[in-house]
Amino acid sequence: MAPAEKPEKFADIDFKQWQQKMFFYVITLYLQRFTGEDAPEVPEGTSDKECFRIVEDWKHSDFLCRNYILSGLQDYLYNV
Q1: 80 vs 54: CA distance, rounded Å
Q2: 3-class DSSP state for residue 10?
Q3: Structure confidence at residue 2 (pLDDT)
Q4: How far apart are CA 58 and CA 32, in angstroms?
Q5: Rounded to two decimals, what is the model's pTM?
Q6: At 73, is the secondary structure helix, strand, or coil?
Q7: Which of 14, 36, 67, 68 counts the highest number of beta carbons within 10 A?
Q8: How far apart are CA 24 and CA 18, in angstroms?
Q9: Residue 1, C-beta contacts closer than 8 angstroms, at least 6 positions apart
C-alpha cells in the first residue's frame, strides 16, 4: 500500500479533522505504534549487540513519527 498524501499543515483551524488526517497518514507509514507506546523492554538474555539494535531501531522510528507530525504544523505552533 502506498503512503497517503500528506495532510496540509495545521494552522489553528479544524484541529480534530487535521488530527484524524495526520493519524491516518502516520498509519499508512506504518508508524502508528509510536504515537502511544513507550520504548520496548528488552528480554533478559538478549546479547548486547541485539539489545542495541532493538533500542536504536525503536528510537529511529519514534524520531520519524514525531517529526512527520511536527512537519504537519505551521512553524509558529512549535519551537523550530
Answers
A1: 29
A2: strand
A3: 58
A4: 12
A5: 0.80
A6: strand
A7: 68
A8: 10
A9: 28
Taking CA atoms, 31 is separated from 22, 48, 62, in Å, by: 11, 25, 8
List all residues 6 or more positions away from 9 whose beta carbon is below 8 Å from its beta carbon. 72, 73, 74
Cβ atoms within 10 Å of 40's Cβ, excluding its own: 11
Cell of 47: 546479547
Tell me, what's the pLDDT at 49? 92
Cell numbers describing residue 12: 489553528
Task: Report the chain (80 residues): mean pLDDT per 10 consecutive residues.
Answer: 79 93 93 86 87 92 94 85
* Set of cell numbers at residue 49: 549487540
